[in-house]
Specification:
Layout: H1 13-23, E1 28-30, E2 36-39, E3 49-57, E4 74-80, H2 86-98, E5 103-109, H3 112-127, E6 132-137, H4 156-169, H5 174-185, E7 188-194, E8 213-216, E9 227-230, H6 234-246, E10 261-268, H7 274-290, E11 294-301, E12 311-318, H8 321-328, H9 369-387, H10 389-396, H11 404-421, H12 428-442, H13 445-459, H14 468-486, H15 495-505, H16 516-533, H17 557-575
Parallel strand pairs: 3-4, 3-5, 5-6, 10-11
Antiparallel strand pairs: 1-2, 2-4, 7-8, 7-12, 8-9, 10-12
EC number: 2.7.1.28, 2.7.1.29, 4.6.1.15
Protein name: Triokinase/FMN cyclase
GO molecular function: ATP binding; FAD-AMP lyase (cyclizing) activity; glycerone kinase activity; metal ion binding; triokinase activity
Length: about 575
């Protein structure tokens, strides 16, 4: 079965992709009749060396993303994973020559088709009297024994584009650029690893990987690597890659040792999430610095992909100050990252967290009657929520991601752990504030944020008074905060429905002669009824609002949880004879 691709046609996808890049970048132009993109300011290159590169499509942003001042003059693109046509390469050479450049350097990745086609175009151009030279880049560090075909050209080629581009922009001659580029290429290595294959539009995946396997040392066209290894953590995979790249027995190794200064490139092969890419970058930096390697620069992103392959490659380039100046030189190429021109190693990566303002002393004794009562109430709430975990998750699966019970259980366990550390504050305001901080940190999800908001706001009226009227005002303040930031209203089929019902009943506490338990009992009954009523409501907020009301035939899990919390509070107070 062929993979799904968002294309207009299999045959025309390479042309369409290049046309899209040019259409969105006024600095580029297409060469009519050819799959060639060039700088739109070619006339400004008169008297300078032109740089052309290219290869098969499917490696985006390479190579067209690296056209610009300070990098490539132009590129020639083949069909997906196919070397470009000789005629198009020759047309690009002629175009830059006719613009008045003093010579052209072809930067070619080491693949047979690219070498042949670029080489033939070079010979034809030279026969026309055009000064053209070619460098072949092979930076693959996968093979421990040198192959006759040499090292494959991988993502390190992008660094060659940058170095050569900076030299050409500085006005250096063709032969001097070649000499320096070849020296840089010898100090560089790249190794890739993949969690999946890729598929050319209209075709099946190029290879299959078992669920528990990753491919080490693969190429950028879906070629199999040097070996398959068991799936492991990012740290373990990165360590394996760096060990392989720098092993003294590997003829294609990068001679990195303690004290070496390197440019690190962490390249997404196309389908890796940004989350995973950041984890790999962190692992690579920690691993290298742990070996005493100085990371002068770190480039993290997608530079040379293999369609949608879920994988990453690491490139190491030994770099001194003169080479770093070329890496840091300005460029207008859209795919080159804007990175600080300072060393990664030695930079302070964290700063102390701000100190919270000191709290007013708690006048009530911790561990006293009020503190013990609060602890028993909280224990009852935790027991209740833990017992509801599965049923709340089941309710949530109809309209959310099925984790409402898990989220509330996480909160319950966090509170239990907090209670084990010592008695809770006796002051109601401090108690609610402490619970707010705890839930915001430990509960997670929108529920954690909403409960945190509620408790933070509810604590404020209790700083001055703690009578029943103050508790009613605290409920009002919490509800106001939830509505202000959560944007839900009563009747929107959310946890607010149950809490709102409680708040309405607790208004009775504001009147003289009100009793604690009778009012709270009525509030709990109203909360339960409100939670049940959400069964027939149309969702107006939260994830459920994106789902047809016809599919929502169960009560809202957040409302059920809120009602259960107040029932647990009531039961705990009744059990203590309050």
């Amino acid at each position: 079965m062929t993979s799904k691709k968002l294309v207009n046609s299999v045959v025309g996808c390479a042309e369409d992709a290049l046309a899209g890049l040019v259409a969105s970048n006024p600095g580029l132009q297409l060469l009519q009749g050819h799959r060639v993109a060039l700088r739109s300011d070619l006339d400004s290159l008169k008297g300078r060396v032109a740089l052309l590169s290219g290869g098969g499509s499917g490696h985006e942003p390479a190579h067209a993303g690296f056209i610009g001042k300070g990098m490539l003059t132009g590129i020639i693109a083949g069909a997906v994973f196919t070397s470009p046509a000789v005629g198009s390469i020759l047309a690009a050479i002629r175009a830059v020559a006719q613009a008045g450049t003093v010579g052209t350097l072809l930067i070619v990745k080491n693949y047979t088709g690219d070498r042949l086609n670029f080489g033939l175009a070079r010979e034809q151009a030279r026969a026309e009297g055009i000064p053209v030279e070619m460098v072949v880049i092979g930076d693959d560090s996968a093979f421990t024994v040198l192959k006759k075909a040499g090292r494959r050209g991988l993502c390190g080629t992008v660094l060659i584009h940058k170095v050569a581009g900076a030299l050409a922009e500085a006005g250096m001659g063709l032969e001097e650029i070649i000499e320096l580029v070849n020296a840089v290429a010898k100090a560089m290595g790249t190794l890739g690893v993949s969690l999946s294959s890729c598929s050319v539009p209209g075709s099946r995946p190029t290879f299959e990987l078992a669920a528990g396997e990753v491919e080490l040392g693969l190429g950028i066209h879906g070629e199999a690597g040097v070996r398959r290894v068991k799936m492991a953590t990012a740290d373990e995979i990165v360590m394996l890659m760096l060990d392989h790249m720098t092993n003294a027995s590997n003829v294609s190794r990068v001679p990195v040792k303690p004290g070496s200064s390197v440019v690190l490139m962490v390249n997404n092969l196309g389908g890796l999430s940004f989350l995973e890419l950041g984890i790999v970058a962190d692992a690579a930096i920690r691993c290298l610095e742990g070996r005493g390697v100085h990371i002068a620069r770190a480039l993290v992103g997608t530079f040379m992909s293999a369609l949608e392959m879920r994988g990453v490659s690491l490139t190491l380039l030994l770099a001194d100050e003169s080479l770093l100046r070329l890496i840091d030189a300005e460029t207008t190429a859209t795919a080159w990252p804007h990175m600080p021109k300072v060393s990664v190693t030695g930079w302070t990566r964290s700063r102390p967290a701000p100190i919270a303002p000191p709290e007013a002393p708690d006048t009530a004794a911790a561990g006293g009657v009020a503190s013990q009562r609060a602890a028993r109430v909280l224990e009852q709430v935790c027991t209740t929520l833990l017992g509801l975990e599965e049923s709340l998750n089941a309710l949530d699966r109809a309209a959310g991601d099925g984790d409402c019970g898990t989220t509330h259980s996480r909160a319950a366990r966090a509170i239990q752990g907090w209670l084990e550390e010592g008695p809770p504050p006796a002051s109601p305001a401090r108690l609610l504030s402490s619970l707010s901080v705890l839930l915001l940190e430990k509960m997670g999800g929108s529920s954690g944020a909403l409960y945190g908001l509620f408790l933070t706001a509810a604590a404020q009226p209790l700083k001055a008074k703690t009578d029943l009227a103050a508790w009613s005002a605290a409920m009002d303040a919490g509800l106001d905060a939830m509505q202000k930031y959560g944007k839900a209203a009563p009747g929107d089929r959310t946890m607010l429905d149950s809490l709102w019902a409680v708040g309405q009943e607790l208004q009775a506490w504001k009147y003289p002669g009100a009793d604690l338990l009778p009012v709270l009992t009525k509030a709990v009954e109203s909360a339960a009824a409100a939670a049940e009523a959400t069964r027939t409501m149309e969702a107006g907020a939260g994830r459920a609002s994106y789902i047809s009301s016809a599919q929502l035939d169960q009560p809202d899990p957040g409302a059920v949880a809120a009602a259960a919390i107040f029932r647990a509070i009531l039961e705990a107070l009744e059990g203590q004879g309050v």
